Amino acid sequence: MEVRRVDASRESVKKRSQKCGEWQGDLKESIAEVTVEGMRQFLMKIAMLPPVPTDVKMLAEEAIMGRLGTISSGERLALAKQGSTRIAAALLLDPEARVTEAALLNSRLTEPNVVKGLMRENAPEHFVHAVCRHPKWSLRKEVQIALLKNEHTPLSRAVYFAGTLSTVTLRDVIANARLRDEVREYVEEEIARRRLNLTHYRKEDSV
């Protein structure tokens, strides 16, 4: 009886494996045939299917990302809202502000994605400004550091971020990052001001 159960289990696994292989092959073929109009529907189908093999998921994402520059504004907006992490991250650098803002609201987007986008030389100004005023991302330490380093960050926001970061962090930024002259000057003044205040408090404590 036990032998029969084992054989039955092996046969079941074999059939599932074959079915998965057939499904994976069909899906790979369909990636090459997906139309511009079907981009969003195709991505949503991938997202809702049972656990998708990593290589197939990556192929689907690459097929879509490779066409971002040729698809309509409306399709990019839909992808920014509902796309995968990689696609949302790619759309942070979209030339349209509304697409960028939609990508920032994508629940799959992560802090490293935002930081990486801010560190890109071609990061659009509207993207930087959107992050500066975003209620979630503008509060993250690593994002604030990246914004300090970005040339498009308004000075008023750079001043605010510098005020929230620790002195150790500010010193590290000064030592290792290329900052705009006015930002560097303010950060250096902020560090000096904190040092002066600390010295003053220590004198008062010793009295």
Produce the secondary structure layout.
Layout: H1 2-33, H2 39-48, H3 54-65, H4 73-82, H5 85-90, H6 97-104, H7 111-119, H8 125-132, H9 141-149, H10 155-164, H11 167-176, H12 181-206
Helix pairs in contact: 1-3, 2-4, 4-6, 6-8, 7-9, 10-12, 11-12
Question: What's the quick description here?
Answer:
With 207 residues, the protein is mainly alpha-helical.
Overall description:
With 207 residues, the chain is mainly α. The chain folds into 2 domains: 1-109, no CATH class; 121-207, no CATH class. The protein contains 12 helices and no strands. Helix 1 packs parallel to helix 3, helix 7 runs parallel beside helix 9 (141-149) and helix 10 (155-164) runs parallel beside helix 12. The chain is elongated, with a radius of gyration of 25 Å. The protein starts with a helix and ends with a helix.
Features:
207 residues; mainly alpha; 12 helices
Supply Rg.
Answer: 25 Å
What is the distance, rounded to the nearest whole angstrom, between the alpha carbons of the first and last residues? 88 Å
Helix/strand/pairing category: mainly alpha
- Outline, from the CA principal axes? elongated
Percent helix, as a range, is over 70%
Would you list the SSEs in sequence order as H and E? HHHHHHHHHHHH
Helix count from the secondary structure assignment: 12
Q: What is the residue-mean pLDDT, rounded to a whole number?
A: 82
The overall strand count is 0
Largest sheet: none
